[in-house]
Amino acid sequence: MDKKERKISEILKGQKFDLDKDALWSGMADTLPKQERKRRGFLWLLLLVIPLAYGGFYWTNLVADQHDNEDIFIAEKGLSDARIDRNTKGIETKVDQITEIYAQTIGEVENDKDLDYQEVTSYTSSSTQGRRNTELPTINQSVSEIENNINTSVSTEFQNINPASSSINQNENALIKTESDLSEWTTRNQLDFVTLEKIDINLSESLEDREPNLQLELDAHLTPTLCCVDQKWSVILLGGGLKSNSKVTGIEDRETGLYGIASSVKVNYHLEKRWTISGGLVYNQLNTRYIDQGEVREIGSQPGISQINIDALGVSKAVQGVVEEVSIWKRDINWHRTQHSFDFQVQLQKDFLLSSRWKVGVAGGIAYNLYTTTKGYGYDHESSGFYKFESDEEQNYKMNAGLKPVVGAELCYGLRNVELVLSANYKWNLSPINTQIENYQIKNSQTGIQLGTRYYLNGN
Amino acid sequence: MVEMYSDDLFNICCRYVQDQSFAKDCLQESWIQIFWNLDKYKEEGKWESWIKMVTINKCKEMLRKEGKWKVSAIDHIDECLDSNVEDLIIEEENVNMFLDKLPQRYRMVVNLYLVEGYNHKEIAAFLEITESSSRSLLSRALKLLKDAFKEPDQSESIKNTQVKRIRNSIYKKAII
Predict the structure, then answer these.
(1) Locate the RNA polymerase sigma-70 region domain: which residues (chain B) (predicted)?
(2) CA A348 to CA A266: how far, in whole Å?
(3) Subunit contact A4:B28, Cβ cutoff 8 A
């Protein structure tokens, strides 16, 4: 470009023309009224939906807590009533049975004793006197033979009497056994928790080999995004919504994941060539519910009288041993657990355009877990009741799990200033979060799927 | 946004089309097109560049619609210019006068080259012509420019001479 061209270029670039902007805008406004209304309406809708979602979530949580309290009361009352009824009815029945057996046994013993004694006495006296009167000369000869016969007869008769005697002993033994049963029944209440503890220990041992199940989250995110004029900075005010958590790693397989919630406040900085760096706080809340209802059969053992031995003289003797205890009762447990965690997350994202509307992004970064805790209700076997608990470092898992690498991908469909976003992410703890083998284990990695919208205030 | 960018865009419109009333129409239509095609902005270039490009395209499109987008034969371009445009001083008024007399396509090429800084390839793509045609158009237009205007130094001296003559005549009248 020579001097002449440069001079003309400067003149052309420096030209200014007056413009009536009001007239220009009034002419344009007629063509774009609906679009403006839609934009503002959508923004207000977003701003309304978010507090509604949060409000609804906490309201349902509140209702769930109240329900839990009712459940606790019902469960405690149900357990107590069931035990009182069971013990009272059992004892009454046993006392009736013992009384009846005792009465029968006493009657039979007395009858048998009288009858047998009379028979033996009359038989012995009549046979001896008759032989003396009618067969006197031969008595001396056959005294020894007769005595032998008598002895034999007596011996035989005694042998006949023995069964009756053993039946008396058996009845007495049954009475002793019944009394021991009664004492066992009266101590049953104290023995129940002993057997429960044994069962739970076995359960814990079996859980040691159990791998935590997949933790899958489904998010419905609403992520309004503010962009400043230079298109470099944007702020995600709030990403939140309902989350379904299918993590099932509790005491039993019946511990199921419920709804949860995830929120984030992030700042995005849009670099050139569709690179974006973002950072901010992410809050996750996961809920699980454990429902255990049904008949429980407990098998345990206790020291006690297990059998009665009878010696050669017919004397019964109780032998100390181990008695197997079986009890059946109804259990109704309903508890609720909530896990809260805060992460600080930084990640880099690269977007690729598939077309004017479709876009794919891949991201990678790192999250630092600031705090994790679990609150909820537990069941105390000794007191047979529920208690509120909040996990600490020693009991369940670390409250700070440290660094968590994050990878993710998203698919976006652009509609003017709004983007529909389907994204998935996976993050895992570099150090295990569980501190010891517990019935309740948290999976060390987390997979998330989010579906949501992204709104750009100042143009996409 | 309209408040912020409208002045610059209106200057562009005025450079590419001849009368300001038509330039306003072009600007208005440009804004409407920008609003309805926000999703097509790919963030790869600057926002300002994108809206400027939309505006220039809208000017070209509206000139075509109005039938003002006619290709003059290069051989007859001299006929379009008055004989007295030679040796003009490089001033805004003279430049505008000269550009007004240029056919639309030449005017467009001069603007794209001198103001926007486009090269032959970009000008060819924009005007939907071959690159060789773009070269011919531009070289012809620049030759006309060079022929029409004096060198800036000469322009200054001519201007100074004219001022001296006027001053002398006023001085003489005052003495008489």
Answers:
(1) 1-67
(2) 12
(3) no
Q: Does A414 touch chain B (CB under 8 A)?
A: yes
* pLDDT beneath 70, residues of chain A: 30, 32-99, 101-103, 105-106, 108-144, 146-147, 149-262, 286-337, 377-401, 416-417, 432-449, 451-452, 455-460
Residue B98 CA to residue B117 CA, distance in Å, equals 20
What ipTM describes this predicted complex? Answer: 0.71
Answer yes or no: are the C-beta atoms of A389 and A408 closer than 8 Å: no
Q: Pick the last residue of a domain from B69, B98, B121.
A: B69
Chain A residue numbers touching B20 (CB-CB < 8 A): 17
- Out of B20, B32, B39, whose CB is closest to A416? B39
According to DSSP, residue A212 is labeled: P
Same domain, yes or no: B42 and B86: no
* Type of residue at B152: P
Record: contact B35-A32, CB cut-off 8 A: yes
* pLDDT band at B161; cut points 50, 70, 90: low
Dist CA A391 CA A395 (whole Å): 6
Q: Residues B47, B79: one domain?
A: no
| CA A287 from centroid of its chain's CA atoms | 11
Contact call for B24 and A417, based on CB within 8 A: no
Q: Do B90 and A35 touch (CB under 8 A)?
A: no
Give the domain CATH number at B17: 1.10.1740.10
Yes or no: say if A316 and A176 are a contact pair by the CB < 8 Å rule.
Answer: yes
Tell me: do B38 and B79 sit in the same domain: no
Same domain (yes/no): B134, B172: yes
Pairing relation of β-strands A233-236 and A242-245? Answer: unpaired
Q: Do A16 and B11 touch (CB under 8 A)?
A: yes
Return the bridge partners of A297, or none: A328
What is this structure's pTM?
0.36
d(CA A219, CA A404): 20
Q: Each residue of A5-40: pLDDT tens digit?
A: 777 788 887 777 877 777 777 777 767 645 555 555
Interface test with A, best of B30, B41, B94, B115 (most A CBs within 10 A): B115
Q: pLDDT per residue over A108-164, tens digit each?
A: 656 665 665 565 555 555 555 555 555 555 555 655 676 676 666 656 655 655 555
Residue numbers of the domain that contains B50: 1-69
DSSP-derived secondary structure for A87-102: HHHHHHHHHHHHHHHH
Stated length of chain A: 460
Assess whether B63 and B142 both reside in one domain: no
Q: Are residues B105 and B167 in the same domain?
A: yes
